[in-house]
Amino acid sequence: MATANLQKALSVMNYDTRITPEGTIITDDGNPLLEDEESARRSRRRLIIGAVAVLAIIIAIWFLSRGGAADDAAAPKTQVPVVTVVSPGRGSVAGQINATGTLAARRALPVGIPGEGGQVVRVLVEPGQWVGQGQVLAVIDRSVQVQQQASQAAQIQVARANADLAEANYQRALRLVDRGFISKADVDRLRATRDSANAQVRVAGAQLGVLQAQSARLNVVAPAAGLVLERRVEPGQVVSAGSGVLFSIAKGGEMELLAQVGEVDLAKLSTGVAVNVTPVGSDRTFAGQVWQVSPIIDAQSRQGTARVALAYAPELRPGGFASAVINAGSVVAPLLPESAILTDEKGRYVYIVDAANKVQRRAVKTGLVTENGIAVIEGLNGTERVVLRAGGFLNPGDAVKPQTAAAN
């Protein structure tokens, strides 16, 4: 091959051709004469490089396919989900119902004008004061009534004088009838006159009593002992039976909370149930008890009222807002967090993990709801391994890797 190339080069040599010290034949324009041989070499290098690249790609694809197959083979083992389970056991669960409501007087007594009324002269109490039964709260002007009583008292004296005179005439007639000076008919007439005069005395006394009672009713008095909540009258004001409520009194100072409770929870309540009440703005909690459960449910809010009796305390202000924790009894049952209990069209259920670490669905019935969880009264005996969370991503029969957590 080299001889052929040398011959070809010699055949084209002329006087412009020269040979370098390295033996390379160069023409006048400075280009190698062996251009075809160099081109062939470059072509061979490209072929070799391309073959190596193709081989490398084939090897890479082979390794990738082997690695993917290995991953596919290992996938069932690495994709088994880990779930947290708990065996809740059984214990006594105290139920609680949280509610809110408005504070009010348990027995609010509205006090108005019992009589004909008039101008208010004095108001003797202020809101927040304690009053006794019959204590005067306000005084109405009674100057006219005083004069009427004085006039009637004089009428009594006149009637009594007439009665005395009639009695004297009758006694005199009795002495004269035996002597024959007057007839028995005259005696009977004098006796009737005496009886009529005595009746007139009693009538005048009764009329005076009416005037005195009317005057007494001008005093606005407390119908029972308690705490004055409101005062709606001032001196100089003219009041009458149509003036409405002048004072509001909490009988005995007793208060209550009108707790609004959902119809489901309301069915669990009864009178005497203990309640802890915390007014808004106060850090104190007051003990009370349910004394009345509403017999009706509001059609709009689907709630009823539980009336909680409370003893007087300055922090319990009628009209204020308060929260309540109502004791709803206790049961012995497993206790689970809300995340473990699922619901669908078939009802409530939980997922349990069996001995083969497979997920199984179990229908349950829940009971009391507390801040620590929900009591399960049917469906569990407490020894099962119950999935605590992520149950919505599981299906019955799924294989899982259970991880035990401590029960609450």
UniProtKB/TrEMBL annotation:
Gene3D superfamilies referenced in this protein's UniProt entry, alphabetically: 2.40.30.170, 2.40.420.20, 2.40.50.100, Helix hairpin bin
Stretches assigned to the CzcB-like barrel-sandwich hybrid domain: 117-245
PANTHER family (alphabetical): HLYD FAMILY OF SECRETION PROTEINS, MULTIDRUG RESISTANCE PROTEIN MDTA
Protein name: RND family efflux transporter MFP subunit
Any one GO CC term of the record: efflux pump complex
SUPFAM superfamilies linked: HlyD-like secretion proteins
One protein family per Pfam: RND-MFP_C
Residue stretches spanning the membrane: 47-65
Domain Multidrug resistance protein MdtA-like C-terminal permuted SH3, first and last residues per copy: 335-388
GO molecular function ontology, one term from the record: efflux transmembrane transporter activity
Origin superkingdom: Bacteria
Claim: Plastid is one of the keywords in the record: no
Domain CusB-like beta-barrel: residue ranges: 259-328
